[in-house]
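can u do me a favor
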């Protein structure tokens, strides 16, 4: 398991030619499956600044290795939604604010979101319902929810 805060700023290398592609700036998540679907990059010299998760070959202590032959595009609106996950408000589907996301724990092999970290505790990733520019929306009625 890895924290998003540990992945941010990590060097991204193309496996085909060991060329530096950029650095990790964020992740794109699918709220319905609680999975990371892509990496958002910054400081990209050539090519797309979004790499589909299936093209991530490995995440090591020093770098992320990718197959850069395949990339994807995000609309400007989607890019704004996904690049700012840390410090995003977390609301229940009933509108109750339950904190601000301080981190996100994910499985480096599958991209599955294991936990959402807030100043008020940790929540299982499967509670995610939706993501917008204003907030991440989670289920309210989970018995494992911190008080």
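np, heres the sequence
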């Amino acid at each position: 398991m890895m924290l998003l805060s540990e992945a941010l700023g990590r060097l991204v290398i193309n496996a085909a030619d060991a060329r530096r592609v950029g650095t990790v700036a964020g992740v794109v998540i699918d709220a319905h499956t609680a999975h990371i679907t892509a990496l958002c990059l910054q400081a990209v010299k050539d090519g797309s600044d979004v790499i589909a998760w299936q093209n991530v070959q490995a995440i090591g202590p020093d770098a992320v290795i990718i197959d850069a032959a395949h990339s994807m595009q995000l609309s400007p609106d989607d890019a704004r939604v996904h690049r700012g996950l840390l410090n995003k408000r977390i609301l229940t589907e009933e509108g109750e604010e339950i904190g601000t996301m301080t981190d996100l724990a994910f499985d480096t092999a599958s991209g599955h979101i294991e936990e959402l970290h807030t100043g008020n505790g940790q929540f299982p990733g499967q509670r995610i319902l939706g993501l917008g520019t204003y907030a991440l929306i989670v289920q309210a009625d989970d018995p494992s929810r911190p008080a």
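The longest helix spans residues 76-83. hope that helps!!
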